[in-house]
Amino acid sequence: MNNAYIRFTEEAAEAISNFPDLHLHSREDALPFLEGTINLLDENRAAYDIYAIRIECSPDYPNNFPFVYETQGRLPHNIDWHLYNDGHFCICTPIEEYIHCAQGITLTSFIQNQVVPYLHNQSFREREGYFLHERSHGLQGILESLYDLLQTRDTNKIYSLLMYIYKNDTPPRTSKCFCGSGKKYRHCHRKAYQLIKSMGQDRLGSIILSLRR
C-alpha cells in the first residue's frame, strides 16, 4: 500500500461520520474510493438537492485533489459544465488546487470546502443557466487566479512577480515590496508570496512555463 492509499483510508472514517451516505470501498490491488450520495442543504439547513458521487483516491493524495465523479449521468461530460471528458470534476484552477493542497487537506475538508460548493454551483446552473463566480478554463483560468493573488491584471507584471518568487527567498518583513509599489513587503504582497511559494518550486515552475508559452 502506498502513502496515498493509507492516508485516504485513514481519513475515510471521519468523512463518513460527516457524510453518512458515503461508503468506503477498498482493495489491496487498487486505490480506495468513497461512493454514495451527498445532500445539499439550503440556508435553513433543509435538504433541497442530492447528488450520487464517487470520490477516488488520487495516486499523489493529499498533494493533489481526489478525483470526483457524478455517477447517475446527471451532469454532461464537457468542460463547459466543469467536467473533464472522463467525467471527473474540474473543481478549480491548477494553481488554486496546488495552494489548497499545500495548506493541507483532509477528505472531510475537501468534501466540505470543494465538493459541496461545486455541487451547489451545478444546481444553481441547472436552475439559472449560468455558474456563480465561474473561472475560465486553461491558461485564462490560471491568469484569473493570479489576478486575485497578485492584485494586478498586467500579465507582464504577473510573469515578473512569479519569476521573483521562484528565484528568491522570503524578503525581510520590513523591506520594500518586490512588486515596486513602495509599500513594505508585510503590508503588500507578503500573503501572495507565501501562498504561491507554498506550491513548491516544480509546480511554480510549471505555471511560469505555461505563461511563457
Automatic annotation (TrEMBL):
Pfam family, one: SEC-C
Domain of life the protein comes from: Bacteria
InterPro entries associated with the record: SEC_C_motif, UBQ-conjugating_enzyme/RWD
Phylogenetic classification of the source organism: Bacteria, Pseudomonadati, Bacteroidota, Sphingobacteriia, Sphingobacteriales
Organism: Sphingobacterium humi
Name used for this protein in its record: SEC-C domain-containing protein
